[in-house]
Design goal:
The protein is mainly beta. The chain has a domain of 142 residues: Sortase, Chain: A, CATH 2.40.260.10. It is built from two helices and twelve strands; from the N terminus they run H-E-E-E-E-E-E-E-E-E-E-H-E-E. It has an eight-stranded mixed β-barrel. The protein has a two-stranded antiparallel ribbon with strand order 1-2. Strand 9 and strand 10 form a beta hairpin. The protein starts with 20 loop residues before the first helix and ends with a strand. The relative contact order is 0.20. The N terminus is likely disordered.
Amino acid sequence: MTVPARRRAGAPRPRHRAPRRQGAVLLRLVLALLAAGTGTVVLLVPGSAPPADAAPASGPVVLAARPPAAGVVPLRVRVPAIGVDSGLVDLGLDAAGALEAPAGPALAGWYAQGPAPGDVGPAVLAGHVDSRVGPAVFFRLQELSAGDEVLVDRSDGTTARFTVDRVERHPKDAFPTDAVYGPTADAQLRLVTCGGDFDRAARSYADNVVVFARAA
């Protein structure tokens, strides 16, 4: 398990829009309807701040999910086209309901209360784009294109293989929550980091880069 990232005094949180309270009610209704299935619905809430040696948190912040099937968890993510080969740390929610950032810029993280990569549903991996000392684990994420391969090694000895569908960039205040976290009928993967212009005063990137991939 990873140690939750701590927010530095005065450091801003990423500008993700909080859901209305009605969203939680709708979420419970949808999950009730999907109780016999495998779908997962996740909502966006305000983000957490980065660790002291990294840029602002790269991933989205989420609420609600389901545990991975049969205790299988992802151990490592490899993206040959951009030279990524990283262990995965577990990411949870802090006391404010915000997604913990990876503890450092070199490792990607997996939202451990959501589907595991290779299970049915949209698994989410997040990582920093850079830090004060240079590029971080997902620095080249925006260079991916349709057809590129993403490999996730799992604790049961299998490797979940995904093929990139598309790469998108969205303002943080218009994050595509439904597209990223909405239920899917098959195993899919999202890789998320920061992108766009960097606001030095706010210490925050304007956008999120999101890679959509599905099981190969």
